[in-house]
Design goal:
Helices cover 34% and strands 23% of the residues. It is of the alpha/beta class. The chain folds into three domains: 80 residues, Udp-n-acetylmuramoylalanyl-d-glutamate--2,6- Diaminopimelate Ligase, Chain: A, domain 1 (3-Layer(aba) Sandwich), CATH 3.40.1390.10; 226 residues, Mur-like, catalytic domain (UDP-N-acetylmuramoyl-L-alanine:D-glutamate ligase, 3-Layer(aba) Sandwich); 147 residues, Protein-Tyrosine Phosphatase, Chain A, CATH 3.90.190. The strands form four sheets. A ten-stranded mixed beta sheet has the order 7-6-8-5-9-10-11-12-13-14, with helices on both faces. Strand 18, helix 14 and strand 19 form a beta-alpha-beta unit. Helix 4 crosses helix 11, helix 12 packs parallel to helix 13 and helix 15 packs parallel to helix 16. It starts with a helix and ends with a helix.
Length: 479
């Protein structure tokens, strides 16, 4: 592709720039080669402008930046917002692939992965060729992507969607993080619909206030195609706010209210969720191995999404039944009469939902092992300590990706929210987990929160191997 067609929407006069061939776009100077267009983006840790000289050494063909730089041997296009321009050009470079299939965006503090997985399972049951993109990478017949980001950057995102279009995939169910919305990773993605799971305190180290966080999420719903529907969890107060603030038709789901989709009957226990969902005088029976009322909310949202696009109830029932629990999310392991649950929960709201569900369903002693991430929102640490304390008989406080922060400092901030003295504090998560497992007796339960199936700890600037899952499996397999 030539440079001028790529930049015609962002410059006043394309004729001021040579119409060089562009066969690659990148934000990484090390990936630059002849024919590349380099985007110099200022991030939180690195400034792409500092790598322009490296891009030139690698024979870059053109540069887009938000600074004026003189005497460069290649054309430089100065723009106000490099991230916004990257989104636009990435979509154009890959020939606007999001217009060629249907995309369902799923956003919210918690529940994105589970809701997406449920929809994917229903599509599978209906014989619809769909892909799922999010925390667990790309899930489809064509797995060409894995990432630590919930939503990839616009270059890779458009490349992936282009590949899915080439493979004749009909639907993409995509988790959409607040960071990706704010950083314009999805600004030029064409969504057919969006689903709101919930919103609670998280990422305030980035967004600063809950209001900013909400307004960022809200932007996704303003991006939906005209005359398309948005699906919202009406039990969450922010769902009600979205309903009032967007000029789109909303489909409401609720466990507590008789809205568009609701439970006519519902039972939740440690063996799963069973119920009947009512919509327009139609009853849809559901049965799932998922645990907890919060997962009943996720099921409602998935059913709503699939029903409004016209899928029959039989496919929905089958898809919910067949959906495998996402790894690391309310994943239950058993040894005799002892239960161990690992869950990715890492926010106060997720703690409240997970722990209240288990407290109501378990008869033995409840142990909780958890920690809080470093270089993230400090204000939630004491709150999470207080919630864990409320639902536990004993707490095991351990590191959970401390990054550059002091582990003792993080643990002490958690302890500030704990009223009881039934806790132990560790600087080593592996030791804490092994000690916790060693105390368990019949009917006891150990809830291991924060990391799910992650296999690393972020300590200082190192990614060190650690797996809660492997430690638990060693315990279970011991004689």
């Amino acid at each position: 592709m030539r440079l001028r067609p790529l930049i015609e929407d962002i410059v006043n006069d394309v004729n001021l720039y040579p119409n060089v061939e562009i066969n690659n776009i990148s934000t990484n100077s090390r990936a630059i080669k002849e024919g590349s267009l380099f985007f110099a983006i200022k991030g939180s840790n690195h400034d792409g402008h500092e790598y322009i000289s490296d891009a030139i050494k690698n024979k870059v063909s053109a540069i887009i930046a938000n600074k004026t730089l003189k005497n460069l041997p290649v054309p430089l296009i100065k723009v106000k917002d490099t991230r916004r321009v990257l989104s636009k050009i990435a979509s154009k470079f890959y020939k606007n692939p999001s217009k060629k299939l249907k995309i369902i965006g799923v956003t919210g503090t918690n529940g994105k992965t589970t809701t997406s997985s449920l929809i994917k399972s229903i599509f599978d049951s209906a014989g619809i060729d769909a892909a799922q993109l999010g925390t667990n990478g790309l899930i489809s017949k064509f797995n060409f992507y894995n990432s630590s980001l919930t939503t990839p950057d616009p270059i890779y995102l458009n490349e992936l969607i282009s590949m899915l279009v080439e493979k004749k995939v009909s639907y993409l169910i995509m988790e959409v993080s607040s960071h990706s919305i704010d950083q314009h990773r999805v600004t030029d993605i064409e969504f057919d619909t969006a689903i709101f799971t919930n919103l609670s305190q998280d990422h305030l180290d980035y967004h600063r206030t809950i209001s900013n966080y909400f307004n960022t999420k809200l932007n996704l719903f303003k991006m939906i195609k005209e005359k398309r529907k948005c699906i919202i969890n009406f039990d969450n107060k922010y769902g009600k706010m979205i309903d009032k603030k967007i000029n789109k038709e909303t489909v409401k789901s609720s466990i507590n209210l008789k809205v568009d989709f609701y439970y006519k009957s519902l039972t939740c226990d440690m063996d799963g969720i069973n119920g009947i969902i009512s919509h327009d005088n139609e009853n849809i029976p559901i049965s799932s191995d998922l645990v907890g009322e919060f997962n009943a909310e996720n099921i409602l949202l998935a059913v709503s999404a699939c029903k409004i696009i016209g899928l029959d109830a039989e496919y929905i029932t089958k898809g919910i039944k067949n959906c495998v629990k996402p790894s690391g999310r309310m994943e239950i392991f058993k040894k005799d009469d002892i239960k161990i649950i690992i869950d990715y929960a890492h926010t106060p709201d997720a703690y409240e939902k997970v722990l209240s569900s288990i407290k109501n369903l378990n008869k033995g002693k409840i142990n909780i092992l958890f920690g809080c991430g470093g270089n993230r929102d400090e204000t939630k640490r004491a709150t999470m300590g207080a919630i864990a304390d409320k639902y536990s008989d004993y707490l095991w406080i351990t590191p959970d990706n401390p990054r550059l922060e002091d582990i003792d400092k993080i643990n002490n901030q958690i302890i500030n929210g704990i009223k009881s003295n039934h806790y132990s504090s560790y600087k080593d998560r592996e030791k804490g987990l092994k000690d916790a497992l060693g105390t368990l007796k019949n009917d006891d339960i150990l809830i291991v929160l924060g990391k799910g199936r992650e296999n690393y700890q972020l300590i200082k600037n190192e990614r060190i191997f650690h797996s809660d899952y492997e430690i638990i499996m060693e315990y279970i397999n011991e004689n």
